[in-house]
User: Fold these one by one.
Assistant:
Number 1:
Amino acid sequence: MVDYEEIIQGLLRARAGQQAVSAERVYFTKTDRGVDPKRENPFKYWPGTVPVLLSVPYSVRYLKNRKIMKSAEFTGSLGYLTGEMSGCHVLAVSKFYRGDPESDFPCIYKSFMGEICRKNQINLVLNLQGLTRDSQFDVDLAVISMVSKGEKVVKVLVRSLEGCGLTGLAINQLRPEPGSVAHFVSSDLGLTVVQVRVNRKYRVPNQNHHGFCRALAALVTGIKDLK
């Protein structure tokens, strides 16, 4: 039986929050100055050992309807540490490239994702995004169809999230927009995809170290249980 509190305490002792702050500074460029993706790779990919890909599309700023949008703060470093500790593959946007991974078509982010999935025989994609602090939920889980593997994945994640004290959960059926990551993964790649949106109060390790470690522990133990 998993001792969630022991895992959380271990992350606290290891100062996982400080590791996240460092990773955010090193890997994720927070600027309005865009890079040319033909000259500079705007993505960061960390290979894993298990056939699960954690996608983090909004780890830096992005362009939507010609407006520069804010990043989902610390989703990048949360994804990075989850990959380090669980063995899953991680793909995140690391530099502002004047695109929107969730709506562009064609899309260089999703094309790169497809290459990763095919080369590594990925069978599940978790699409990590953020919720605002004033959301009534700690975590929102959404899957395209609550049957078969998608339903099983959600059950495993719910068990880990609740075990780590994140009890304000929303479980929804995802209706992916054409061009979105979820639509691409399910329709083009034929894989199961679950959207995981984490409340900002669990994504501020410099303000809520304990909460961040709870969210990290939940993702790590959940992915390990999915193996």
Number 2:
Amino acid sequence: MHILVIGAAGMIGRKFAESLVKKPLSADHASLRLTLADVIAPDTPAGFTGHCETLTCDLTQHGAAERLLNGRPDIIYHLAAIVSGEAEADFTKGYAVNLDGTRALFETIRQVNDREGWKPRVVFASSNAVFGGDFPDIISDDYILTPQTSYGTQKAICELLLADYRRRNIFDGIGLRLPTICVRPGKPNRAASGFFSGIIREPLVGQEAILPVPDTTRHWMTSPRSAVQFLRHAATLDLSLLGERPNLSMPALSITVGEQIAALRRIAGDKAVALIRRAPDEAIARIVAGWARGFDPQRALALGFKTEQSFDEIIQAHIDDELGGRIA
């Protein structure tokens, strides 16, 4: 099995590639071949002795998609994107990366399909940002897409492209609307949602964290562990079960900032909570206010996608996976 991961240097891409090495999707471990690509060179997963090609590649550049698809992978994971805050701040770059790069990939697959009949499976990482505006507290699977940010608009357009290319039998496609991933390890990125992780991640190692929104802010979150499992499950799922609607809202937890802090207190105590400093930021609050607060993802649940049952589990997963089971 040949798997191409675009965006493999990112946190989810890296963790997903590592999971493929630890627990292959196929029983035949020796048959696994990886192509890992990003705008910076990804690392080969530790312990992998099979064939792994790492590429530095920018999908917005002419010929990049052809280069990525040269090995005719069986499954293509398209995880690369400019994150929400950056896409809002840089209109041109957001559309170039999130939309034009995706279109170039899909169109190159079509061209090869026309010549050779090659039909890979494409797993596209979408986002809950495709919803916006005056939506209900709980969004059903039948709710229309009403993005209120450039990032959400770009992802919504790509979802429509994925559905159309799939309808025309160019590739087998599935789009996963990923919740906000929390707790993200490493340094903060430019995502407007970054503070959801920061108010947990930093206090756990004895560092101050900035909270720019009220404690009552509610959001839809899942762990990196669950996100990786979503991607793995999408590789083996019978895509005929999707019908004509290949884009799915993934399960997660609808949690307020106050509930996050309460979970942090239960696990790490008052000392950790005291490191959260409230510094209201109207720009971030305005962006976050336009995001979905909760979903009823019955289609994804029925298809076997799963997530945590409490935010305590999400914090503990971060402690176990990133801090060696210990906190400051």
Number 3:
Amino acid sequence: MIGLESVALDVGGRRLLDGIDGSIASGEFVAIVGPNGAGKTTLLRAIAGLHPPAAGRITVDGRDVSTMAPLRRALAIAMVTSDDVLFEALRVRDVAAIGRFPHHRWWQWRERPEDDDAVSSALHSLGLDAFAERFVWTLSTGERQRVWIAAGLAQATPVLLLDEPTSHLDLRVAHEILSLLRAQTRTGKTVACVMHDVNDAAAYADRIALLGDGRLAAFDVPDRVLASDVLEQTYGVAMQRLTLPDGTTRVFAAVDR
């Protein structure tokens, strides 16, 4: 579904990432992790067609995203960011309905039954039914985050990209969101998600893409990434590893006491 072929990405005239090769299959959940400044968000934006590669090619379903018309991209790729976009004067349902804009001509907007169904389903899946008529300004930061995820789901695209979707969320809600994204892949949706917590990435993702030192340091199933020395080299910190009863691995920064 998503292909990256020798991709290089520049920011401010500086090469941030180079030689990125890989693919993400339909129905796969990939977590993108790495130190701050490693290029995680930039890579996500490039996959969305919002940051043109300096070299190489990024494809979605075989089509080069840099040559896709904006409307076609919007029907194929939804991106949920952690940006503080201000729509405080809108109601929650109106913000979620923004995800339906690509399904209408720019001069037409009259909600159709399929729009209502998509928005209602997205709000329900995120536990926002009771919030539908509330103004965004009345919500907590975490609740607003869920509203933007609802807009991404309502967009009903085969590819869903998310930049730190669990930031500002408590442990329970973060678990619910990641479980929801995991469930989306069972419907065939492809999910790529920037995450900071490597253990959350290991718990929910099929594979982990580890960025560091301007390259794709590892791209493999979670246990292999967490067990490798590359993880310590990339983060520059010694790791302690714990094997859970089910055989999976979790890692923690080694602390001297």
Number 4:
Amino acid sequence: MKHAIPTIIFGLFLAGLFLAGCDEAIVKEGQERFYSFWGAVNKNLDTDSLVLAIYLEKQDSVVTTAEITLDNDTLAFDGQRYLLSYDEADSLDDGHYILRFTDSTILSDTVGFDLPIDLEITNVILPSNRVNAGGNPVQFYWSNAVGADGYIYAAVLKDSAYKSAGYADFSVDYARQATIPRDAFRLYSTLDTGWYYIYAYAYTGSPAFDDNLPTALPASGFVDSVTHVQLSGMIGSIVVSEHDSIHVTLGK
């Protein structure tokens, strides 16, 4: 009986090593299952269209085998991202939606996003002909988009909309008005005359793409909004107002 206790202890020691090995395997398996994604749902009232784009990675490699669905609609993989397009902006009304991510038996998760209610530009502080002689700052206002987390305002030359960066910035303290600065009407410090389109964007969450937007998103301001065990990343939505116009001309 004197040797029974050491034998039991030795057995427990071996069992501990076995369990430790199992734990290590579980950790490695968990690491292999880690997915990152970047997504946006951009609803454009100006073009009457809506685009949902998701970029999905697993261990820094693009995932091509996943299925991502919104209700009964499946996003199509285009060689780089998963996309879903609608010809009518109102194909998705304001409210809460659920995306489902599935990749074989490894990934099965859901992610929610919200769409704010539609908005519109309500007033532009310019004459009725919208002439802005000299490219001075212009103040404008928009309606309340219920459910929005904040607002972005944008200005871009009419012929450059959806083609170049334009100007975009966050409204201060989530206000429903902004003043477009002189820099928005200048190219390399030189006045860039012509017709400009201006927009208000209402956003929720952390939209990661500028697909279907007339200008690029501001350079900073959004961070990861999803931190699940298997899945983490960014998702958010944007509703774009119908445009208004400003005619920038040379000053006297």
